[in-house]
Design goal:
By secondary structure, this protein is of the alpha/beta class. It contains 9 helices and 13 strands. A 7-stranded parallel sheet has the order 3-2-1-4-5-7-11, sandwiched between helices. The chain has a two-stranded parallel ribbon with strand order 6-13. The structure holds NADP nicotinamide-adenine-dinucleotide phosphate (NAP). The site of NADP nicotinamide-adenine-dinucleotide phosphate has 33 residues, from helix 1, strand 2, helix 3, strand 5 and strand 8. The site of NADP nicotinamide-adenine-dinucleotide phosphate (NAP) has 33 residues, from helix 1, strand 2, helix 3, strand 5 and strand 8.
């Protein structure tokens, strides 16, 4: 079903957990589509901004159950769990992703069987749950093409243990479907996110850097924030298309190619790479191509920005035209392209 079908989501009830860069953008878009939207955030300032966009907000910690009674007990047609690690290293991953998903499951179970559970209808606590996971669950490198069936595991994300919690959150999400608390579950494994207000590589080059830390010879695997939103809407539109989906754009570009292209747009020479990892860089640099064909075939996902060239063009034109690139960024800018939260692909 076409996610853009007029009226498709009108009046539907959406709950967003983790109203950050992606979740905040989807919450705003949903309110603009005429949906009834509630978003959970720990941040009162974020809550104020979302309220101005017509989103009901609840300030709370996802891993607690204190918010359960404050997110109306009428169930939800659509639920988006978009929380990030929230700081705090590995413990932060466990708390936000695993304890957070457990809390969502507990809330959904309380909704089960309640009369008038939104359009989800069939007595499930919630309709479709979309969880934005990460391609960081894949350990593959060496130029491999990585589809959803590729083995995942603890060695992934540089073997630092994050993959374990990301995969556990996926398991908990699918358990909600098996137990009948969610009508359908789609896990979107996101590649590195960039978009309006999130383009640190570009900013670094614009600031005049002629050398960058790290290497340039590995595939970046990026995806534009608005294409992630598109994938989320496509998943909400396809309750029958459940499972795991890789969400990455069509580029097969190395970091060197990306930086060279960006530098050219800025009228600068291509940067050199120091070969020394950036301070604080976690995990190994994995050289692989994330295969996005399943999401296109099964969800009908269409990329608005198939490669970084289309994605960065409007950002560059705003910046080079003297404008401010906060557009749609909701004030969450400043992260590294594809690396905020450091779970990028
Ligand atoms: N960045 C990447 O390149 C990348 C790559 C692959 C996957 N991902 C994943 O994609 C998703 C969306 O990423 P994003 O860039 O939108 O992340 P983001 O901007 O960091 O937003 C995530 C939000 O989650 C909220 N949050 C974190 N822990 C929470 C908790 N325990 N309770 C309540 N809220 C909590 C934070 O909001 P408050 O502080 O306002 O509460 C934060 O704004 C995340 O799951 C992320 O891990 C990211």
């Amino acid at each position: 079903m076409n996610a853009d079908a007029p009226g498709k989501f009108l009046g539907g009830r959406l709950v967003v957990f983790g109203a950050g860069y992606v979740g905040g953008a989807v919450a705003r878009e949903a309110a603009a589509r005429g949906m009834r939207v509630t978003a959970l955030t720990r941040n009162p300032e974020t809550a104020r901004g979302l309220a101005e966009a017509g989103v009901d907000t609840v300030v709370g910690e996802l891993a607690d159950d204190a918010w359960h009674g404050r997110i109306a007990g009428r169930g939800a047609d659509f639920v988006l769990n978009c929380v990030g690690a929230g700081g705090g290293g590995l413990e932060g991953y466990r708390k936000s992703y695993v304890d957070g998903m457990r809390s969502v499951a507990g809330w959904a179970a309380k909704m089960r069987g309640r009369a008038g559970a939104g359009q989800s209808g069939i007595g499930a606590g919630i309709g479709v749950l979309v969880y934005t996971g990460s391609t960081a669950v894949y350990p593959q490198s060496g130029g491999a093409v990585v589809g959803e069936e590729a083995p995942c595991g603890e060695r992934a994300a540089g073997g630092d243990g994050r993959a374990r919690w990301l995969l556990e959150a996926e398991r908990l999400a699918f358990a909600m479907q098996a137990e009948g608390t969610a009508r359908g579950v789609a896990v979107l494994r996101l590649a590195g996110i960039y978009g309006p207000g999130r383009h640190q590589l570009l900013d670094t080059l614009r600031d005049g850097a002629d050398a960058l830390p790290g290497r340039g010879d590995y595939y970046m695997n990026l995806v534009h924030r608005d294409d992630i939103a598109g994938a989320i809407w496509a998943a909400f539109s396809s309750p029958e298309a459940q499972g795991v989906f890789n969400i990455a754009d069509d580029s097969a570009a190395t970091r060197g190619e990306l930086c060279g292209w960006l530098a050219r747009q800025l009228g600068r020479p291509a940067p050199r790479f120091s070969g020394v990892a950036a301070v604080g860089r976690r995990g190994a640099l994995l050289h692989r191509l994330i295969d996005n064909r399943r999401a296109k075939a099964q969800l009908g996902w269409r990329l608005r920005y198939p490669t970084f060239r289309e994605g960065y063009a409007p950002i560059l034109s705003r910046l080079l035209g003297g404008g401010r690139d906060g557009e749609g960024g909701g004030g969450f800018g400043g992260g590294r392209d594809g690396c905020r939260g450091s779970v990028g692909g």
